[in-house]
Amino acid sequence: MATPFHRGELAVQERMGQADIAAQVGRMIQADIPDRAAEFLAEQPMVVVAAADDAGRVWASQLIGLPGFTRAVDRRTVAIEAHPAPGDPLAGPLRTRRPIGMIALQPQRRRRIRVNGLAEPTGDGLRITTDQVYPNCPKYISRRLIREFRPTIAGEPVRSRSLNAAQQQTISSVDTFFIGSIDTAGHVDASHRGGNPGFLQALSPTHLRWPDYRGNSMFMTLGNTASDPRCGLLIPDWQTGAVLQLTGTAEINWDTETFAPGAQCSIDFTITEVVSIDRAGPLRWGPVELSPVNPPA
Fold it and tell me: Which InterPro entries does the entry mention (predicted)?
């Protein structure tokens, strides 16, 4: 039977001793968009996409609109009527055809669906031809409710090669971030990481570390990382609409002395560029309810 996994994913599954579980779980991956997934996508006011820019750097960006802005138009096509904020690292690259990863995450109900495929620009956004569509478990998703939808003009992007002190402090307080990764064939994936504040560490202005907690055993992000270190992070400020976007390289750290409680391994991330945008989107979210399954940070 053909496997949906590439060599990097298979290698990590074997190392983790979870290859049999992954083979079973992997059967849910399909190219077609199930009816329930289509309904879920149409309800969401935000999705996160990941892609490589023309220089090969991987970024993760948010796309926001009123529910219905993301919808399945047929069994293999997702239409998104939104563009990244002006100055977003993917605002230019997504004007041309390229592989894309997408995650639709619903904090209110702790649900998420991932979509990978090929994106083509349209006049009002993107159209994705799907290669992989699959749900993820609710683990580590922080619950939040939308407080308001406030259209604003995005701030000017601020670019740097490293994190300043305030950004490092922000990182140490987050409970959620999104990650884009890529394999050697150029296929891109977007995923989510969650935990108690402090689970994402800024070890220096250019070096982050986070734990990899047990999930669905497919290891799509870690499998990509094992194959190609390029990745990008999106760190949203749920209260102000600001975003912090990082691109760089990631490495799986198997040294057990670096493992946080509940971790299967650690991920070390080296930053090559930072983009900060105030008021990058109109969504404002209320107080957080951390996932009850989060290990201690």
Answer: Split_barrel_FMN-bd
